[in-house]
Amino acid sequence: MKRLWIACAILALLLAATLWNAGRLERFTASLTDLLEQAEAQAEEEAWREAYALTRLAYDRWVSHSTSLHITLRHSDTDDIQTGFQEVLEFLQCQEAGEYSAANARLIARLELLSEAEQLSLENIL
To answer: What pLDDT, on the 0 to 100 scale, is given for residue 121?
Structure first.
């Protein structure tokens, strides 16, 4: 009977850790998405410097969490987002409005999909 309770406790601990990680990732990606949307608004007003600064802030936050993200997520997902940030920053430096807007939308979508993939849902279980 003792083994059963230990196994249940381990399962409960794993479930709690999974839910905590999913919640943390959702908050983190939402904060990055907010910054990227603010940057988009600045770029639409042709405030390229401000848009770059906001995007760079989002990128720096991404990099500061890269170790934990690489541990808990698939490397291909984190690599795609890393590449997306670099692409967006390059378009901002060149002030290429159309290309920047499309790249930024792709990056935001990748961040949202990353968060959704880690949520406990019937879709993710099946």
So the answer is: 78
CB-based contact 82:62 (threshold 8 Å): yes
When computed from its CA atoms, the radius of gyration of the chain, rounded to whole angstroms, is 18
What token pair was written down for 87? 């692409």
Dist. CA 12–CA 30, nearest whole Å:
27
Residues in the chain: 126
Q: What is the predicted pLDDT for the residue at 123?
A: 74
Other residues' Cβ atoms within 10 Å of the Cβ of residue 105: 14
pTM of structure: 0.89
Q: In this model, does residue 10 exceed pLDDT 90?
A: yes
The contacts of residue 37 (CB under 8 Å, 6+ apart) are 108
- CA atoms of 101 and 31, how far apart (whole Å): 19
Residue 81 vs residues 3, 11, 13, 68, 76: alpha-carbon distances, Å: 43, 31, 30, 15, 9
Give per-residue pLDDT as tens, 34-66. 999 999 999 999 999 999 999 999 999 999 999
Amino acid identity of 89? Answer: L
